[in-house]
Each structure stands twice: as C-alpha cells, then as structure tokens.
Amino acid sequence: MNSPLDPASTLSVPESTPEFATGSATDSATDPAAGFDAVLRGGAYAILPQFGVIDANGDDAATFLHSQLTNDIQHLDVTGARLAGYCSPKGRLLASFLTWKTGDTIRLLISRDVQASVQKRLSMFVLRAKAKLTDDSDKLLVVGLAGDVRGALASVFDALPDGVHVKVDDPTGTLIRMPDAAGSLRYLWVGPKDAVEARLAKLDGALRRVSPAVWDWLDIRAGEPRITHAVSEQFVPQMVNYDVLGGVNFRKGCYPGQEIVARSQYRGTIKRRTALANVAAGVEVAHAGVELFHSDDPAQPCGMVVNAAAAPDGGVDLLAEIKLAALETGSVHLGAADGPVLRMLPLPYALPVEG
C-alpha cells in the first residue's frame, strides 16, 4: 500500500477528444470529463454554490472571532487569508473556514450546508461585544479558477497574488491564490455578485465554465479538507491535517476545545490523520461520512471519508481520516469489511512523523 507521506505524483489525464477541444462553456459545465479536461489542459472557472459567506463587522469583530476560532484572527494581515476551524468544547470541528479581511469586514468562507447552524451558534456568544455576523452569501459570488488562468485574470485585476493564501482586492472583490492541485494553479474570487458576473462575461472567451464538482475534486487533490454537515463534530483539527495546513495557531489564547487540541499536539496522541485515496465506486457510494474498515480488524471502523468527488481517471478521489496504523499493512475498505478497496495516493505535502 502506498504511503500518503510520499511526494505528490503526476496525475494521468485522459486524451483530449475533439468535442472537449471545441465544446462550449455549457458543455464543460455539465460534462464532467470536459470539465476536467478544461482545467488540466487549459483554463477554467466554476461558480461555487457549495460555499456560503459570513461577514463579521464591528469594533470587536476581530477580538471576538479570535476567541472562538483555532487561528489568529486579531493579527490577520490585510494581504493574506488563513484557514481556521470552529470547535465544540470537546475539540471537534463544527466547521472549517477560509478567512480574510476586506476593508473593515472579516469574511468567513464556509460550507453552505453548515453555515446557518454555525452562524447561529457563534452569534449566541457575541453577547456584549461590538460585533455582528451577517449572512452575505446572496450578495456575493464565489468563483474558483484553475489551470492556465493568469493571462485571463490579468485582464481583470491590476495585480495577481503571488503566493498561496495571498490576496489582492479591487472593486470587483477579493482574489486569493489557493494551493495548486493536480499541477494546476488555482484562485478563489469572491465579490459583489453583479460586479463579478460582469467581469466573468469578459472571461468566457478565454476560460471554460465547469461544474462546481470539479473544484471539489481539486480541493481534495490539494489535500485541503472541508467540514460539511456529514462530518461535523467528527474530527479534532489534527485528524484532518489542519495543524500541517496552518489552520491552528498553538500560541494564541483560548477558544472552545483549545485544551483538547493542544493536549493532542503536545502529548503525542495524534494517531489518526487524513490521507488521499482513490476508490472504484460512484459518488453515491463514496461520500462524506462513510466509514472505513481495515482487513486486519474488520469488526470496527478504522476511519471515515471526509470529502469525496468524482475523479478524471474513474472512480472517486477522497480525503480519508484514518488510523495511521491502518496505513502500514493490509487493506482499507469503503463502507464495510468487504467493500471496495482504497488505493492510497500521495498527499501534496508531508505529514509529521508521529512518535
């Protein structure tokens, strides 16, 4: 079994077909194969309804979020974005965010299916702080861009961010450089809906529009997990590699679950991590929340699917939270001890060696 600690491998891409080379934006948005081809052999964008946006405003907004999330929000740089998590008192992730400042607003990008419950829970703890949380999802458009997109973006933005999680702002919103995936550059563009739609119309001749599911696959290939409703409250941040990805600041003050997260880090009790894998199954079978089983201990689960998306080469690519010991020998199976076998793939980053 391949170890997820190995360097990233090269993804093989099916040969391009004439209809992929000449198809319209609509073709790429509805045909998964055309969508993968558009990203891996050219440039593409996807409108991403799977994300919601919570805006935090007020004199105490940064201080309040700093006291609730796993990362440092008080010192959030105006030129950068950060991953962060929101934990239960037991240290289990209720949600994951990408967060940044735009003007006087702190913006939180979150999985749309947990936004309402998380925003309500956070709002309960605002109390007397001068902070207000607003659902601005309907006012904003979230767009993912991947592949050979720099030329097209340069026609829209005066400058492009040059490092991962570095951002630039202009009247059409914020452009954030995301981690590469499958050898493709990636950017996230979030801004006022009308302004972004007007600029996107200018890009349609240069970039293909693809399905939002293609972006989900790219996130998985980048090794960045997203906490959705199916896995909310299942994982301590380290189980989904959030410490490695910079989503946890161990020097900041307290936040819900902080003691448990810190104890896991410093007492060497991290025995589970998230690996990248492929499985020969459909997305209706391989989806977030499905349990995993090991051939040497088939009676009890050894892990859980965090995120899953259809893959270009067939089957489903997934991020799987799993016992580290289960990666050393034997085989891991989806859904049951006799379920489809997971083929482990290398993550695009190294995990620490646990003692």
In words, what does this structure look like?
The protein has 355 residues and is α+β, with helices and mostly antiparallel strands. Helices cover 21% and strands 32% of the residues. The protein has 9 helices and 17 strands. The protein has helices at 18-22, 25-30, 32-41, 61-66, 112-124, 150-154, 193-203, 212-221, 258-266, and strands at residues 43-47, 51-57, 81-87, 93-102, 105-111, 132-135, 140-147, 167-170, 173-181, 184-192, 208-209, 272-279, 291-294, 297-310, 316-323, 332-334, 342-345. The longest helix is centred in the N-terminal third of the chain and has 13 residues, at 112-124. Mean pLDDT is 90; it is low at 1-26.
CATH fold label of the domain at 229-345: Elongation Factor Tu (Ef-tu), domain 3
> Could you estimate the helical fraction of the residues in percent?
10-25%
Largest sheet: spatial strand order: 8-9-10-7-1-11
Tell me the quaternary state: single chain
Beta strand count = 17
Strand content: 25-35%
CATH class of the domain at 229-345: Mainly Beta
How far apart, in Å, are the first and last alpha carbons?
Answer: 21 Å
Rg from alpha-carbon coordinates: 20 Å
Spell out the blueprint of helices and strands.
Layout: H1 18-22, H2 25-30, H3 32-41, E1 43-47, E2 51-57, H4 61-66, E3 81-87, E4 93-102, E5 105-111, H5 112-124, E6 132-135, E7 140-147, H6 150-154, E8 167-170, E9 173-181, E10 184-192, H7 193-203, E11 208-209, H8 212-221, H9 258-266, E12 272-279, E13 291-294, E14 297-310, E15 316-323, E16 332-334, E17 342-345
